[in-house]
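INFO  loader      accepted 1 record
INFO  loader      residues=423
INFO  predictor   begin
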Amino acid sequence: MASTKIFLKSGHPPTLLAAFLYFDFSFAVWVLNGAMGPFISEQFHLSPSQIGLMVSVPTLAGAFMRFPLGVISQYIGRKNAAIVEMSSIIIALLYGFFFVHTFNNVLAMGVLLGIAGASFGVALSLGSGWFPQQYKGLAMGIAGAGNSGTALAALFAPRLAMHFGWQHVYGFAAAMMLLPLLVMAIFAKEPPDVEHQSLGQHLKCLVEADGWYFNLIYIITFGGFIGLATYLPSFFYAQFHVTKVQAGTLTVLATLTGSCTRVLGGWAADRIGGITTLSVVFLIAIAALFSLTATPSLVLTTALFMLCFAALGAGNGATFQLVPLRWPVTTAVAGGMIGEIGALGGSILPNLLGLSKQHTGSYAKGFIAYALLATGILVMLRMVSRSWTRRWVGPGGRARIASQALDSVSGVNHEVESGRAYV
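INFO  predictor   done
INFO  writer      dumping tokens
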């Protein structure tokens, strides 16, 4: 309890709440087409590969929009950028309500839903901006738990679509977006951790090797999360012949687990280090992906997806414990870039699964391919982390402030470059 009070007093909780709601509702909008996948595929008689394409379009569009929004937020402020984006989301949803009637319209709507996917870097930077370095991981984990929006979409969208028609779900979502918009406008405050730099300085992370290492890591943790979240309703519906609503409910069980563990991942990374946490969760996710190739029973499959999502969610939190340590004054831009590439990775898994199902009659090869990719990136992480702990982060990936404090308690002295957060 005492540590919770210290954490809350160290920052600005209303802004953290506003950032969470902003990300949560935006994330729910972003995955709407995936949540309604069984309804849309039934109406337009889509093949497995077409379903993979349909659910990946919003992911791709959101990925390309993330980095520009992160750059803009550095100039107009993160709060203002969030307000502009949420207003644009409402307009896009109204388009879906009035004008989406064909499969081509659905694909076009997927591009517009990508606006909601751009929220990532801004939401996390806004939510953590008031908190000191030793609490960045937890603050980002709380804001990032807004990816629970996947559970909201999977829970409510199929039920609303069943009773009112799937096109009307866009209208309901537009009305619901007013809540986070009002909370942001009234309660949030722009964090003070802003340093005015040139565009070239902001874009420096694009040409740094560390940025691309983080990109690859996030392709697995977040790309796997969003890729599975958007495809699971269609997977459960096709593989186990459950109802559309049941497919959504099963998806909720898996995605909600991953959303909860994002906070735990940030918390664990603050204490044992992001590198250590990432290494553990990668191993768990890889094991779960390989286990899914056996196509076990519905109960066991759901349990394996929950385990996989738990690992991926914790990995997301651990990744963004490290990002503000590496780029302390351009976190929004760095987060936008990493989130963009990671989200692009989210289009890999749905298409792998769709193509695998269409050409082999099974999803196994799609899971195997993604598990092998994750294995390669885990090896890369272990290799490059040796350099990170020498240059800008403490043992295991802890913040140097935190690692110094822990070492002083144990009587261990380390020479740490004073005042340097990154190289």
